[in-house]
Amino acid sequence: MAAEDKADGRDEETQTAAPSPAPRSPTAARRLIREGLFDGPTGALAPGQVQAALAAVPAEAALAFAAFCLRNPKALPLLAMTLPGERRCPALGADVDLARDLPAYRVIEDGGVAGEVADAADLWRDDLTGFLIGTGHALDAAFAEAGLALRHRSESHPPPLFETNVPMEAAGRFSGRLWVGMRPFSPSDAVRAIEISGRYPMAHGAPVHMGEPSAIGLDRLTTPDLNPPSRVAGGETPLFWASSRSAEPALLAAGLDFALVSPPGKLLVTDLQTERARGF
Amino acid sequence: MAAEDKADGRDEETQTAAPSPAPRSPTAARRLIREGLFDGPTGALAPGQVQAALAAVPAEAALAFAAFCLRNPKALPLLAMTLPGERRCPALGADVDLARDLPAYRVIEDGGVAGEVADAADLWRDDLTGFLIGTGHALDAAFAEAGLALRHRSESHPPPLFETNVPMEAAGRFSGRLWVGMRPFSPSDAVRAIEISGRYPMAHGAPVHMGEPSAIGLDRLTTPDLNPPSRVAGGETPLFWASSRSAEPALLAAGLDFALVSPPGKLLVTDLQTERARGF
User: Which of A217, A240, B175, B199 is the most buried (most CB within 10 A)?
Assistant: First the structure.
């Protein structure tokens, strides 16, 4: 699968180790990160590729987390999972090493965030099970390709994220409230954004809400829980998409002795092209 | 979710226990089966509803089976999964009891088929984990709705199934060869069938092959491995869709001490409407 998805000749950038200009092939992007030459947000790397969030949980909690993802497919669409002891993930790239190929790893210990590391090879326990979760990265790529102007891009930041009062479907020890990302659009663009995103179930699909923020428990849009706010202009409608950020609070609340999760925006660059976020 | 998906007033059939005419609501269909009044193939029950195959495996093998499904999404699209001890599956119907709501259960013991039972309540172990897998039932519904003539329907049997020589992606102890269902179409109808099925990833999506059967290891189309053959008329092309029948051989080869699997065509009638097989 990886070989088919890789465009011909895209690997030429792997010849150069220089971090600038940004690598265009996913292999080059992962290598740069693996070698410790890049530790920032992955948004600008390898345009057109699906980027995945990571949650790695101990085997004893993994079955429940798999069910949690399946029961909340808009927030946590499962692109791939590994079995305990597997750090490779060939479905997302032949060379992928889950413990090293993300720019940063948030370390969860005894139900709290213990810190962040740039490389998790020394922390990766034999019983860790990796879940690779689709993100809004492919959504923004699809919107841009369709010519839709994205407010957060013109404002040079990621979409503002909010914790709603909408409960997720629980599975075993995992539960929590849904996080959403907000993108404002004019009515005609909102219709197109809904149409387009509906075709990408592996990138959160259609919005979970549009319009009145209070309907999902949000007081105001000017104070997101994460990332800077996006201006909503007169006549525009705020659209809310489920966010893979929903994973971290659920991992924390589950009281796991240990887990790893990707920090927001610091994702695995995969060999899957955006088109594949339409589903398999 | 179940409540939203249920069309208004469809439950009126639940007032009658008579097996004839065939119940139109999924609740009525499940009740009939649960009460032992129906044990045949579910194809004609509750038109327009997604029907799911069941695989129930012990918890110790469940994580690997979840990964096996995710790695082979065309054959084994996961509609839902339960955790050990859960027989209910509210995502597919508020009243669903996985141990009683299928017309039959094939019992796997020590790597072989030990027999079939009409009710698995006495066999359902506390460590059993249920996987509900999308089937071609929704595909046929979508084809019929689009006005495509289905050969196997005019021949009054399910689609012929074949074991190919195509290896599935392994996960832990699970591996095996892909099974496919064949439907012949004229070239123009074949194009439409590919277009339409591609929109239903939870019902096997687009075909895995079209044309020359030998390319996927099939000698002839006149001797399917399961179900009667379908005639391929002059000028028609055989199209091959991945089949949820791929699960059973993989369960057998895994050498499990115990598992349950739905016999072909004897499926769980769910509250999901066909439209939902497009993905979530």
Answer: A240
